[in-house]
Amino acid sequence: MKTLGMIGGTSWHSTIVYYKLINELVGNKIGTQANPELLLYSINIELMREQNKEKINAKYLEVADKLEKAGAKAIIICANTPHMVYSFVQPQINIPILHIADAIGKEASRLKLSKLGLLGNQPTMTGSFIPSFLESNFGIKTIIPDVEHITKSHTYVSQELTQGKFTDKAREFFLQQIQLLKDKGAEGIILGCTELPMLIDATHSNIPLIATTQLHAKMASDFIMEKEA
User: In 3-state terms, what secondary structure has residue 6?
Assistant: First the structure.
């Protein structure tokens, strides 16, 4: 099995889910008598809350370099938003970062979806790191909520979901956004916050929900099980 580096902490709730899922998925293939070797570096979430892009880029590069030197053969970033560092960090290390949008695009293509709604916090919805990757690599269009709803979505994510608080009020809000995005032409919805699948699942929606956490963890487990070149 290949050693995987994990960058977590944003939030630690989602990091736990990633760690659990990766071990379970690998265990399904090799049995419960063993488990993969994982290198986990948990970042203080305050770094992301500052929204200082230069500091965020520098920290993720520092951590990625440490994981590579420690023996990681690839890196997985255990959240959606920190993928904003991908274009900065990836060219400066010698191992691949498993991009979350690659997992999204493959699943959307499998489902034959060409237009996806994107939910998450403000940097994820308004940033280009997921939409541009999907557009350039899979030809998939991405749409986001209206401006007034983006702010409210960000508040729910940052002040509730990433702090482990999951309320009926938040669920009602995001289900409303799913319907509004569907009305705008979305054929499926990206749950672009790692905690969103902990709040909403397929039983709540009549269009496909793309749970990025599960797909990303599956990509990680597949990489771990690949034979060394």
Answer: strand
Amino acid at 50: E
Contact 227, 3 (CB under 8 A): no
**Phi/psi of residue 23, nearest 5 degrees:** -65, -40
Q: Strand 74-77 and strand 115-119: pairing? A: unpaired
Q: Which two tokens stand for residue 94?
A: 């010698």
Residue type, 159: Q
Give tens-digit pLDDT for 173-212.
Answer: 999 999 999 999 999 999 988 788 888 877 878 889 998 8
Find the Cα–Cα–Cα–Cα dihedral 158, 164, 165, 171, rounded to 10°.
80
Find all residues with CB under 8 Å of 9, minimum gap 6, and list them. Answer: 15, 41, 42, 43, 44, 45, 78
First-to-last C-alpha distance (Å) of the chain: 12
Whether the CB-CB separation of 74 and 97 falls below 8 Å is answered with yes
Q: How many helices (H) and strands (E) does the chain have?
A: 10, 7
Which tens digit of pLDDT belongs to each residue from 83-142? 999 999 999 999 999 999 999 999 999 999 999 999 988 888 998 999 999 999 999 999
**Sign, CA torsion 138/139/140/142:** positive
